[in-house]
């Protein structure tokens, strides 16, 4: 179920634009702050993570998240989904979907594992890039999508 991935409709933003990767990461981090999932300092840690280990995972998708040290800034495990139909230059590859991750402790491993199993499906990834309804995002990111 989508709730297994800590994603809710209020955390989905469709049809957005970003000037560049930095702007897109700021948007993901700001949304996580607005959702009450993280302290504001987590956004800086997301940029630190990106500088050390790029978060592009393929299929036009990136999963920006904070550093190991920033987990103390996480209040609750949540995802933030932002779609960029025109794409964002992610230091080479183009990203159409950025999924910001806030997870503490070992929760980040299960969140990353769940996301990876969904995002490695090229059909689902293509549908996420083109989706126009937040409820469709929730369905597509469920481990077992509904028909």
**Name of the CATH first level:** Alpha Beta
How is the biggest beta sheet arranged? 5 strands, mixed
Number of strands: 5
Number of domains: 1
Q: What is the mean predicted local confidence, pLDDT? A: 88
- Shape, per Cα inertia axes: globular
Assembly type: single chain
Can you tell me the CATH topology?
A: Mannitol-specific EII, Chain A
State the helix count.
Answer: 5
Q: Portion of residues in helices? A: 25-40%
CATH architecture: 3-Layer(aba) Sandwich
Low-confidence stretches: none
Q: Structural class of the helices, strands and pairings?
A: alpha/beta
* Radius of gyration over all CA atoms, rounded: 14 Å
Distance between the termini: 13 Å
CATH homologous superfamily heading: Mannitol-specific EII, Chain A
Percentage of β-strand residues = 15-25%
Order of helices and strands: EHHEEEEHHH
Strand order of the largest sheet: 1-4-5-3-2
């Amino acid at each position: 179920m989508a709730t297994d991935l800590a994603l809710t409709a209020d955390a989905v933003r469709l049809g957005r634009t970003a000037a560049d990767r930095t702007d897109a990461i700021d948007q993901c981090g700001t949304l996580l702050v607005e959702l009450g999932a993280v302290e504001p300092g987590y956004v800086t840690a997301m940029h630190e993570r990106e500088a050390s280990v790029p978060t592009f995972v393929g299929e036009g998708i990136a999963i920006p998240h904070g550093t190991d040290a920033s987990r103390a800034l996480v209040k609750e495990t949540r995802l933030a989904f932002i779609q960029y139909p025109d794409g964002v230059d992610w230091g080479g590859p183009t990203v159409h979907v950025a999924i910001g991750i806030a997870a503490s402790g070992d929760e980040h491993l299960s969140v990353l594992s769940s996301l990876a199993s969904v995002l490695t499906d090229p059909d689902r990834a293509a549908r996420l890039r083109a989706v126009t309804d937040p409820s469709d995002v929730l369905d597509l990111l469920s481990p077992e999508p509904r028909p």
